Amino acid sequence: MPEPIKAVPVRHYGRWIAAVVVIGLLALLIRAFASGDVNWGAIPQYFFNADILKGLRNTLIITVLAMVIGIVLGVILAVMRQSKNPVTATVAWVYIWFFRGTPVYVQLFLWFSLGLVFQYIDIMPIYKDEWSDFMTPFLCALLGLGLNEAAYMAEICRAGLNAVDEGQTEAAHALGMSQGKTLRRIVVPQAMRVIVPPTGNEVINMLKTSSLVIAVQYYDLLQAAQNIGRDSGAVVEMLILAAAWYLVATSVLSVGQYYLERYYARGSSRQLPLTPLQRAKAKLSGGSNHPGGVA
């Protein structure tokens, strides 16, 4: 009988060389930061400072509210783009063209400076005031971020709606469902699998973009860090602290995005891959790592 073949795994020397190079570069980077003129003790000292936490809270608030405006208005604009009415389709296209084509930093300044055009805001008999008093830093930041985000969300939602097969809509209409009911019950739930992943990225991006509101004097995490850094002399240290808080917030949002994607992916896959928590439990219990249901 022939001798059994002994399989010898391929040796990947390039991987070991690359690993050594990466570890060496990382060690040099750590050494550079450790030997630099940075007061690392100031970071934990101010990490839970009241002003820092207030700035973080304002950052989260403006992020959530701006995304709400962006998502709601983005859905409306996406439906308008899909409309057979040339007027509504053109209006939506012009809106998206303008807000996607100009930097959000410029838009923030435009909202702040519209007092040159509109001296008063007059919504008789509800409200009347000077533009400078009406356009507070909070409102300026909210409109600047929210309306800009709506243009991007409109394209994301339009892509999601277009991803649903037209036969679904035709079948719903054949059953007597109205256009609005078809959108709510048939098209939108299926489109969410396409819409959710980029929307999660937009939320994370909005959290970071919110740092631009310092231009209109809105008190956020970056503003708080800069104020403390200027008063304490630890300017760079407070910027590192702000970056750490942004990383914490984006990490939490990334986890939420992961589970939200799993929720809307249930209909597209019979078995979803295990979550990190499920894999850890399976290893501890000695079970198999076959795909399971939603956690």
TrEMBL record:
Highest taxon listed in the record's lineage: Bacteria
Transmembrane segments: 12-34, 60-80, 92-114, 238-260
Keyword Transmembrane helix: yes
The entry's keywords: Cell membrane, Membrane, Transmembrane, Transmembrane helix, Transport
Positions of the ABC transmembrane type-1 domain: 56-257
Location relative to the cell: Cell membrane
One Pfam short name: BPD_transp_1
Protein's membrane topology: Multi-pass membrane protein
Zinc-finger found in the keyword field: no
Family (UniProt): Belongs to the binding-protein-dependent transport system permease family.
Quaternary structure, from the entry: The HisPMQJ complex is composed of two ATP-binding proteins (HisP), two transmembrane proteins (HisM and HisQ) and a solute-binding protein (HisJ). The HisPMQ-ArgT complex is composed of two ATP-binding proteins (HisP), two transmembrane proteins (HisM and HisQ) and a solute-binding protein (ArgT).
Full protein name: Histidine/lysine/arginine/ornithine transport system permease protein HisM
Lineage: Bacteria, Bacillati, Actinomycetota, Actinomycetes, Kitasatosporales
